[in-house]
């Protein structure tokens, strides 16, 4: 790349993940459960355009750039959101009672979950570019500048955009049995990551120019 990726260490505005799954558990000594879940997940992600490394390209290669030229310009005043399709998901984990005293029980659990859905819809809203792509495709392992047919529906060498979702959960709780009621208090820590394999998605454009205009938005020009 010509310069550090602006998306590193950036936070998302909103990330929602929905899972419907079945549950299978193996009980050990009436104290511990080893379990797994199988189901389907889908998600919604929204963030500042910098978090998605949205750039405007001018077609200048990094090897020939002059001091007064920018091969790409980071666009930080926009919003990018995406919706995924529903895809297979699974998780494994364990939980159990670590300490018991009378009616009081201290328990702990951990769980790891994974899913790899495809992006169903991508929306970009920025002052220099606004577009929406259904079932977007992009280039993996391809450096700037992208091929000249990037963004055209018939472009070759593109792959579907997938999100590699991974999540770790660790929790602990303290409960106390009162006849048929079991009040409890607990804490849980979770870390989720979303990885798109550094795929580069081009803004949609027409295969040939139809208007003689000068604009940042290539979909107006077709080139």
Secondary-structure blueprint:
Elements: E1 14-28, E2 32-48, E3 55-57, E4 72-74, E5 79-84, E6 87-101, E7 104-115, E8 119-125, E9 130-134, E10 137-138, E11 159-160, E12 164-176, E13 184-195, H1 218-221
Antiparallel strand pairs: 1-2, 2-5, 2-6, 3-4, 5-8, 6-7, 7-12, 8-9, 10-11, 12-13
InterPro entries: Major_OMP_Chlamydia (IPR000604)
Subcellular location: Cell outer membrane
GO molecular function: porin activity; structural molecule activity
The total beta strand count reads: 13
Low-confidence stretches: none
**In whole angstroms, how far apart are the ends?**
23 Å
Question: Could you say how many structural domains there are in total?
Answer: 1
Helix content range? under 10%
Q: Would you tell me the structural class of the helices and strands?
A: mainly beta
Radius of gyration: 24 Å
Average residue pLDDT? 85
What is the beta-strand fraction? over 45%
**In one word, what is the shape?**
elongated
> What is the tally of helical segments?
1
Biggest beta-sheet profile = 9 strands, antiparallel
- The SSE order reads EEEEEEEEEEEEEH
